[in-house]
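User: I'm curious whether this sequence folds into something compact or stays loose and floppy. Could you predict its structure so I can see for myself?
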Amino acid sequence: MSRKSIEIDWRNIALDDNYERSLNIIEPLSFSTLLLEIRCNIKEINCATIRELFAADLQQRVDEAWEVFNANALNIEQTAQKERE
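Assistant: Here's the prediction. I'll summarize afterward.
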């Protein structure tokens, strides 16, 4: 079974697994993705609407990152302490 077909449990990241350990906590945002979102989601394209979209997108990514972090905080702490030993 390939790794791509396995669903990630974001509420319980397996920090002893190299693949899951290497996952981004916060979803990256490229210029290409931003331009696609602008093209698809903004009716009137101008600096104000682009800033609004970017701010909302960024806030959503930060909120999701906090959720993932908080769900895994104890696991992160335990792994960090074990690796320090």
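Summary: The mean pLDDT is 93. Residues 3-84 form one domain.
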